[in-house]
Amino acid sequence: MKQDMILILDLGSEANPRLAREIRAMGVYTEIHPHDISAEELEALPGVKGIILNGGPNRVVDGVEIDAGPAVYGSGIPLLCIEHSGAPALSEDTREQTLRSFVFDTCRAEANWNMDNFISDQVELIRRQVGTKKVLLALSGGVDSSVVAALLIRAIGKQLTCVHVNHGLLRKGEPEQVVQVFRHEMDANLIYVDAVDRFLNKLSGVSDPERKRKIIGTEFIRVFEEESRKLEGIDFLAQGTIYPDIIESGTKTVKAVKSHHNVGGLPEDLGFQLVEPLKMLFKDEVRACGKALGLPDSMVYRQPFPGPGLGVRCLGAITRDRLEAVRESDAILREEFAKNGLEGKVWQYFTAIPDLKSVGVRDGRRADEWCVIIRAVNTVDAMTATVENVPFDLLQHITARITAEVQGVNRVLFDLTPKPSGTIEWE
Q1: CB atoms within 10 A of CB 386
Q2: DSSP-assigned letter for residue 268
Q3: Cα 167 vs. chain centroid, distance in angstroms?
Q4: In degrees, to the nearest 5, what angle opens at C-alpha 196 toward C-alphas 258 and 238?
Q5: How far apart are CA 343 and CA 341, in angstroms?
Q6: Where are the alpha helices (DSSP H) in 267-364?
Q7: Where is ATP bound in this sequence (predicted)?
Q8: Coil, helix or strand at residue 178
Q9: Which residues contact 393 (CB under 8 A, 6 or more apart)?
């Protein structure tokens, strides 16, 4: 690697990701590793200039206070103890100054952590791992899988095969964008699978949100398995695993938040080795990598989108007419937010349509039609969320467009509920 590294050893602090991001913001690469790293593991890490022992509330495991071992204390690498026994706690005022002094003055690390160097390193590592063999990637069109695809295309070109499964639950224009960007602009081997009827037939009459999610996830796995078995000579499976996925999967001192297996829970008996080139990047760094690789902003800055897609925004049993109304109303909302400067200001915004009709007037006649719910929220961690204060005149304009342009809709509602008591999605 071309980057110097500061190593953070987990001694029970839940603030490790924050600390890592602070150091990366200084331009120095950092990774989080278990407290009991061995001498061999430490020696295998390239460019380690300093080690931070980061203690915290989870430092006592099974009644015993954990600590780094002789491999660390005897390494000769400069050490900084934070919230560690025998060391004073750092105040917010002195935290950055202390970190800067340790990183640059004590460790003599260079501020050479940047996307150009990261991409160069990963291209070299991918080529070394894959050799002349072939790689398969499930390309959803989301940020992580798109950036992985672009990085692998740069590294191994036609050795990569991407499979894009259109299950009919994507937003307007997204399947077409995946084909345009990766097949036509980046010249990738792209298999496009039109599975719309297959998914919607499976979902017909199913109203329970959890059943819908399971059907969508299971069917995706089956389609991907079927396509993968048509191919020959595939040895590697690429995934869009990113650093928060790994951190949230838990360490020896921090309880797991969620699993980080990112391809819909693909069975391990597919027999592939994993390629995960983004696994040490935070989300904003993934986006920066995508920009550096030349992906369009509409793909790089794509909003958070649930795995089941519009399937959980077409509330209750999915019908094709309501699904299309969700897709069209969502496209109008996104267009108007972009035109009015809210695209980068609001964390997530979308429309949902419940299985509910109300009486209205269409061309002078009574019309029983659907209502569209607009949701626009801001959040830092998705655990809590506040509602964006959308200007009333803009809401009126969006309402006029949706009721005029989206077939079967006569009302537009704005969801004012924060999280809690509501959730971000409706299902």
Answers
A1: 12
A2: G
A3: 20
A4: 40
A5: 6
A6: 283-292, 297-300, 320-339
A7: 140-146
A8: helix
A9: none
**Helices 115-130, 143-156: crossing angle, 10 deg rounding:** 70
The model carries a pTM of: 0.79
**Ordered strands of the 79-82 beta sheet:** 29-34, 5-11, 48-55, 79-82
The span from the CA of 397 to the CA of 418, in Å, is 23
146 in a known ligand binding site: yes
Q: Tell me whether residue 329 is annotated as binding.
A: no
Known binder of ligand: residue 204? no
From its phi and psi, is residue 170 left (phi > 0), alpha (psi between -120 and 50) or beta? beta
Closest CA to 259 of 287, 239, 281: 239
In the DSSP assignment, the letter for residue 90 is P
- On whether 142 is known to bind a ligand per the annotation, the reply is yes
Whether 240 has a binding-site annotation, put simply, is no
271 annotated as ligand-binding = no
Continuous segment of H or E residues that includes residue 71: helix 70-73
Cα 282 to Cα 7, 62, 285, 289, 290, distances in angstroms = 16, 31, 5, 10, 12
Secondary structure class of 77 (helix, strand, coil): coil
Tokens (6 digits) for 30: 């950092």
Burial class (CB in 10 A: 0-12, 13-18, 19+), 102: buried
- The residues, any chain, with a CB within 8 Å of residue 389's CB and separated by 6 or more, are none
Structural Rg of the chain based on CA atoms: 24
DSSP assignment of 362-404 equals: ETTEEEEEEEEEEEEEE-SSSSSBEE----HHHHHHHHHHHHH
259 is in an annotated binding site: no
Cross-strand pairs, 298: none
- Domains of the chain with CATH codes: 5-106 (3.40.50.880), 115-300 (3.40.50.620), 318-414 (3.30.300.10)
Averaged pLDDT in 10-residue chunks for the chain of 427 residues: 86 84 93 90 92 79 79 93 62 82 96 92 94 93 92 96 95 94 93 96 94 92 88 90 72 41 49 88 91 92 85 95 97 96 91 94 92 93 87 97 96 96 91
